[in-house]
Amino acid sequence: MLIKNLTVGPIMANCYIVGCEETGEAVVIDPGAEADIILLSLAESKLKVKYIINTHGHFDHVGANKRLKEATGADILIHPLDAPMLADLAENAAAWGLTSDNSPPPDRTVEDGDTVSFGNITFKIIHTPGHSPGGISIYSDGCVFVGDTLFAGSIGRTDFPGGSHETLIASIRNKLFVLEDDVKVYPGHMGMTTIGQERRYNPFCGTG
């Protein structure tokens, strides 16, 4: 499994390209901005995008959905509770003094326990609400892409509409901290960490 991390947009969100090296099929997780950079990286790796997966509906994670779909034809996947946000990206970005294209509607919605397969890779969808109602984490053996649910030494904000601190902590402890210690955590901002590191030392939700 090939994993490429691109930090895109003014809010410095992590976009992940995950590719099957045997087949050349790939997914793009959270294309927040700078579609040209994402497309160039895909071309350099000779990857064909099957799915665009949004961990949640905030504009800094989905702002390049439109251009990426137009260029690749890939299906957009998001949890149904966050799907309505895709039509309001321009308005939400404007509240930050920024711009964003509205996204096309999802081609498919995904919920807890669903699987997404491309090439020889299968992802399991884990519903991890709290930062947003429809936040998801995306798990495969040895790695989990968590959006803005969990960060290295921190957690996602819960002061946006639909956010809940109690729900977020429950998602982390009951859905993510049950994974193995050595599972690599790929967050929506900042650097990678591991489940074991955060379970032990995260000051917001660690269990010591």
Give a brief outline of the structure.
Helices cover 23% and strands 30% of the residues. It has 208 residues and is of the alpha/beta class.
Count of strand segments: 14
> Order of strands across the widest beta sheet?
1-2-3-4-5-6
Mean pLDDT, all residues: 96
Q: Termini distance?
A: 32 Å
CATH class: Alpha Beta
CATH topology term = Metallo-beta-lactamase, Chain A
SSE pattern: EEEHEHHEHEEEEEEEHEEH
Q: Helix tally? A: 6
User: Which regions contain 5 or more consecutive residues with pLDDT less than 50?
Assistant: none
Structural class: alpha/beta
- Helix percent reads 10-25%
CATH 2nd-level architecture? 4-Layer Sandwich
Biggest beta sheet summary: 6 strands, mixed
What is the strand content?
25-35%
Query: How many domains comprise the coordinates?
Result: 1
CATH superfamily: Ribonuclease Z/Hydroxyacylglutathione hydrolase-like
Radius of gyration: 16 Å
Specify the overall morphology: globular
